[in-house]
Structure formats: C-alpha cells, structure tokens
UniProtKB/TrEMBL annotation:
Residues 1-24 form the signal peptide. This is Uncharacterized protein. It comes from Zestomonas insulae. Residues 29-55, 65-84 have a biased composition (Basic and acidic residues). Residues 28-84 are annotated as: Disordered. Keywords: Signal.
Length: 84
C-alpha cells in the first residue's frame, strides 16, 4: 500500500518534470525561429541598403559595402537579443 503511493508520487513528479522540459524546448525553438526570421529580413534589408546607396551614387562601392555590413550586424544583434 505504502509502496504503491510512493511509486505514484514518483511517477507524478517525473511526469511534471517531463512536461516542464518539453515546454522549455518548445520555447527555445520558437525563439530560434523568430531570430532566424529576423536574420533573413535583415539580409534583404542589407541588400536593399546597398542597392539604394549605389543608385544614389552617394559613396564609393566600399562605402556602400560598409553600410551593408553595418545593417547586417545590427540585424545579428537583434537576433541574438531575441534568441538569448
């Protein structure tokens, strides 16, 4: 009688722990997806930044490349903020 109660309590504790672990894994997966989406949007924004820069003929090609790098770096930082 007592042993069955102890086993039931242990089983319940294990069940609750597994639910908590799976919830945390799901949350991490959602964060990774959101961060990936931010990085993908950033890539397109960086391309557009460089195209606009070159079309406006405001800077040299190297200057436009640097603007693109800065745009991508800002996107990476936003993605890290979301992910971690």
């Amino acid at each position: 009688m007592k042993a069955s109660r102890i086993l039931a309590c242990i089983f319940a504790a294990l069940l609750l722990a597994s639910v908590d672990i799976s919830w945390a894994a799901t949350q991490r997966a959602e964060n990774r997806r959101e961060a990936r989406d931010v990085r993908q949007e950033t890539r397109q924004d960086a391309r557009q930044t460089k195209q606009d820069c070159r079309a406006a003929d405001m800077q040299s090609n190297a200057g436009c490349r640097q603007d693109k790098r800065q745009t991508k770096q800002q996107g990476r930082e936003r993605a890290r903020d979301i992910k971690y």
